[in-house]
Design goal:
By secondary structure, the chain is of the alpha/beta class. The chain has one domain: 3-Layer(aba) Sandwich (Rossmann fold), CATH 3.40.50. Helices cover 41% and strands 22% of the residues. The chain has a seven-stranded mixed beta sheet with strand order 3-2-1-4-5-7-6, sandwiched between helices. Helix 5 links the parallel strand 2 and strand 3. Helix 6 runs parallel beside helix 9. The radius of gyration is 16 Å and the shape is globular. It starts with a helix and ends in a 7-residue tail after the last strand. 40% of the residues are buried.
């Protein structure tokens, strides 16, 4: 089994265990007591959605973003929720059915292997992209699929630049990232995401949140490019 396959299997097992209680435990992101729903709303607002837009929610989990997206796009819009884990998608499907949404499609796929639909209006990922080893590849593929003026937004965790490492480790351990904490800190995936968005998107922006323990990155699609 390759390293990528091993990482994928580990993530599936971890999130299968987390799925049942994820809606509750996710409130700990980016820090206990911090208004996580408000940060999700801020991320959705950064997409600049209009009625009828199509949105891909990468690593959608249990669909916590869906209600916020629905308010912006209305029944004439479209949501595609993509997640690696069957258990997470099962919870997302329950949410969709409970709300009677007929404009949501759910896809089980590794984010790095997902084929984005052409001319999608917006792509969103919240508290998940730093767990994807090939996050730069995902950003690039999504950017290529965006319609003119389409938006890519990532909300996720990071280590504060000015905080002692021991304190950062304590804070991040509280929310227990799914990958090894040591590996996650060493890999510094938020830097990969920032670099990919700066390279692939137009007018990229980067905002640090919650004293630098989280970030909101956004940018507009540049049109097609060739790898």
């Amino acid at each position: 089994m390759s390293r990528a396959d091993s990482t994928r299997e580990r993530l599936i097992e971890i999130y299968r265990k987390k799925a049942r209680h994820y809606d509750f435990t996710s409130r700990l992101y980016p820090a206990p007591g911090y208004p996580q729903r408000g940060q999700r709303l801020r991320a959705v607002e950064a997409l600049g959605l209009r009625e009828g837009d199509s949105v891909v929610d990468i690593a959608c989990g249990t669909g916590l973003n869906f209600p916020l997206i629905q308010e912006a796009i209305g029944p004439g819009g479209r949501i595609v929720g993509v997640d690696l884990t069957d258990a997470m998608l099962a919870r997302a499907r329950d949410r969709v059915e409970a709300n009677g949404w007929s404009n949501v499609s759910l896809v089980q796929s590794d984010a790095a292997e997902y084929g984005f639909p052409a001319e999608v209006d917006a792509i969103l990922s919240t508290y998940a992209m730093t767990q994807v080893p090939e996050s730069g590849k995902v950003i690039a593929h999504g950017a290529a699929a965006l319609s003119g003026g389409g938006r890519w937004v990532v909300l996720d965790l990071k280590i504060p630049d000015s905080t002692p490492e021991w304190l950062s480790r304590l804070g991040i351990a509280t929310v227990r990232t799914s990958a090894s904490l040591d590996e996650w800190i060493a890999r510094r995936p938020w830097e990969t995401i920032r670099a990919a968005m700066q390279e692939r998107l137009v007018e990229p922006s980067w905002t640090e949140l919650c004293f630098g323990t989280a970030f909101l990155a956004a940018g507009s699609g540049p049109g097609s490019f060739t790898d």
